[in-house]
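Usage

Read records sequentially. Each one opens with the input sequence:
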Amino acid sequence: MIPVRGFEGKTVAVFGLARTGLAAARALQAGGVEVALWDEKPAAREAAAAEGLPLVDLTTADWSRFAALMLSPGVPLTHPAPHWTVEKARAHGVEILGDIELFARTVNAAPDHKRPKVVAVTGTNGKSTTTALIAHICASAGRDTRIGGNIGFGVLGLEDMHGGAVYVLEMSSYQLDLTSSLKPDVAVLLNISPDHLERHGGMDGYVAAKRRVLLNQGKGDTAVIGVDDPWGQQICTEITAANRRTIVPISASKAMGRGVYALQGLLYDATGERAVEVTDLLRARSLPGRHNWQNAAAAYAAARGLGISHEEAAEGLMSFPGLAHRMETVGAIGQVRFVNDSKATNADAARQAMSSYPKFYWIAGGQPKTGGIDSLEDLFPRVVQAYLVGEAAPAFAETLKGKAPVVQAGTIEAAVARAYADAAGSGEEAIVLLSPACASFDQYADFEERGEAFRAAVQALARAPAQGMRA
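and closes with the structure output:
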């Protein structure tokens, strides 16, 4: 773990005892900080107590003794209403921060020879793939690489820092809202489209949260900015005018006089005197589709910002094995292939997978986001049949009425079974695509659990024919 610096001998309250909160509590203790842990869920409190971590009921605690509140990112800070812990902290003048901020202060306090390189990746879509891709390139180039944040491990649970390490961190808008002093050597802002608007009070609040990844950069740092959406274009223009850091625009839809871009699958580096072809992404089996070309452009630009050579960055792109739950093939039965895109928690993310296949059997639904799937109407002709699950099923069925055939499946397991039967019955090669365009919280703890349920259902189907043959 990374022992937290800056709060030695003080007491920090920690609210929210899932992965992030527990990792932060351990790291605070390792840094000589007294902690007071609490969670509204009894099971979470029991898990912390079983580990020997001190519980303090924050509903009745004396908040004047706390130097800070370490808030888990899933807990509302401002919208739709501040959580009661936030109100108590503000009433007592207690600083509110997140685990990324604790990490940032620890990095900033380290002497130069122990200070690692930090890459921070955010955006509405593509964060996880790009984060994993950058980490893969760095590791393939021989760098001591750690990956965490909103992916994998909480950042403070990663191995302790040294001057040769590279931390590649995925950062959500929730985490960025709780971060003020992070100064990444490379900041990546992939794209922005409407998402989590209820949490940020609207689009302005959401964009402001995403921009925070660029807040403290200066000379010698690199900002990689996607310019295929109007918000990214505006941010790139505004920070270019500031003229402090190195700015690398990226695009998967147009050639640029300066930056890194992909056209028809060919990746170009135009950061020098002329555009140079980097590699043919059509040969990268784990990076299909234009959205992955943007991810590849961002990862290449980030790697170059860390001093990794052109050749090593290109080789890393081609050897990337892919990411679980993002257009991941989890099995095939006969001519039917099953693709797990559970990470697609909004319509824009689902569009990326849906655009990659000329026709498919679509499993969608869950806890709906603002706007539902209306924006995907141009892709409905590709849907052979839709199998709807979760809270969004009735609304999605209404949207799809007259545009694609619909089955109200209810659960992932039922959807997989019905989709396989229909796809196999077609007698053709077929894709069964889980790309929910929804959050998972109505039926699952997170998108990973939903994706694993899909995988398990596919594996159960695959075993059934074999069992029948043995019988």
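Summary fields computed downstream for this record:
- DSSP finds 15 helices and 19 strands in the chain.
- Residues 466-471 have pLDDT under 50 and may be disordered.
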